[in-house]
Specification:
There is one protein chain. Helix content is 14%, strand content 35%. The protein is built from three helices and eleven strands. The chain has a six-stranded mixed sheet, with no helix packed on it. It has a five-stranded mixed sheet with strand order 4-5-6-8-7, covered by helices on one side.
Length: 173
């Protein structure tokens, strides 16, 4: 299974159009981790199999969190603001374990991050529109994750759909 994960576009509809059109035939699943600031009824938001409600998605009908099963893989998605992700991943990791997730997707920090805890991939794609932290100079990122029975493969991409060579990771499950 291959999934596209994106977050924190903060109303930038054009970048979502560009990225989802580029990947719609190359991934099995698309996840938005919140702060789209866009109505879920918009065609571009309808492309996402999962879209979480972020702390800036006031009045928009998104779920705060979702657990879905795709190709026998349990995926938990949330924005992360209710799990203290700016300072620790422990509450989010515990929630992922409670959900028996293979992959936990979150945003909120605007900083890309990826780790594996107890066989569970925890991934933040960074912000596609307002990046912060060490990789802010890339101008925005999203992630594409491959999952099979033995490993996770993670690649980060820039706004212009270019892979970031230093941000390719393979983790054993």
């Amino acid at each position: 299974m291959k999934a596209l994960i994106i977050s924190d576009n903060h109303g930038d509809q054009q970048i979502l159009e560009q990225v989802t059109q580029s990947w719609q035939d190359r991934v099995d699943f698309m996840i938005h981790c919140g702060d789209s600031e866009m109505a879920p009824t918009l065609p571009v938001m309808q492309r996402f199999d999962v879209a979480a409600q972020g702390n800036n998605d006031w009045g928009l009908e998104y779920s705060l969190e979702q657990t879905v099963v795709k190709d026998k893989r349990r995926i938990y998605a949330t924005h992360g603001h209710r799990y203290q992700v700016n300072s620790t991943l422990t509450p989010l990791m515990l929630k992922g374990q409670e959900q028996r997730a293979d992959m936990v997707c979150y945003g909120h920090t605007h900083q890309l991050a990826v780790t594996v805890e107890d066989g569970m991939l925890m991934i933040n794609p960074g912000s596609i529109s307002l990046p912060r932290g060490q990789y802010a100079g890339l101008g925005g990122t999203y992630a594409v994750v491959g999952i099979d029975d033995e490993r996770f493969s993670v690649d980060y991409y820039t706004r212009d759909n270019q892979p970031v060579a230093d941000l390719h990771f393979v983790f054993n499950r």
